[in-house]
């Protein structure tokens, strides 16, 4: 297919994706929120309640991260670091993993991450939110919560994985001949 024809067709696909995202946005607004418990999570400074993570915001993003052993979750978190200020201007934002708080801090410091982290280690939080498989493995995703008259309501969630809308790396690679191919993220490159 000629370049001009292909780019026109790709633009049409992108327009359809944008229209579908608008439909999804409307559906999202119509979801009946799910009340959740005020979980106790861990930080290097001690326990913190889910309700405290909102700070002065009404909305809270919780990133379900598989921890320092996952190269993919690390790549996503590296990207969140770049948009953290933008996200935090609208809603509270925290990354939550099964790693112990001290291990989280060491890893976050080594990556230069600026966002807050909490540990759900020894809690049912990840499982209750649907981000722990029956075999015990943790799964990546995002839960969004809203404060509502003293209650914590989950208003949306989605899983994460290669090609999703939350990691631009895949979308850049989609523009290359052969896409990502057999590429996989690494903790360090050379």
Automatic annotation (TrEMBL):
Organism of origin is Vineibacter terrae
Identify the InterPro entries for this entry.
DUF899_thioredox, Thioredoxin-like_sf
Name recorded for this polypeptide = DUF899 domain-containing protein
Q: What's in the keyword line of the UniProt record?
A: Coiled coil
Record-linked Pfam families = DUF899
Q: Coiled-coil regions in this chain?
A: 3-30
Q: Which SUPFAM superfamilies match?
A: Thioredoxin-like
């Amino acid at each position: 297919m000629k370049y001009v024809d292909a780019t026109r067709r790709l633009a049409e696909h992108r327009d359809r994706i944008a229209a579908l995202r608008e439909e999804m946005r409307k559906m999202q607004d119509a979801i009946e929120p799910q009340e959740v418990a005020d979980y106790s999570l861990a930080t290097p400074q001690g326990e913190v309640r889910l309700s405290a993570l909102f700070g002065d915001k009404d909305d809270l993003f919780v990133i379900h991260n598989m921890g320092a052993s996952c190269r993919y979750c690390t790549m996503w978190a590296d990207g969140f670091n770049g948009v953290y200020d933008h996200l935090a201007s609208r809603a509270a934002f925290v990354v939550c993993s099964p790693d112990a708080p001290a291990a989280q801090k060491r890893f976050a410091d080594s990556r230069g991450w600026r966002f807050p982290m909490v540990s759900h280690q020894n809690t049912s939080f990840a499982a209750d939110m649907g981000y722990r498989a029956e075999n015990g493995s943790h799964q990546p995703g995002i839960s969004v919560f809203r404060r509502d008259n003293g209650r914590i309501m989950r208003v949306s969630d989605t899983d994460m994985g290669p090609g999703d809308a939350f990691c631009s790396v895949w979308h850049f690679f989609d523009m290359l001949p052969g896409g990502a191919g057999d590429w996989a993220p690494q903790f360090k490159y050379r």
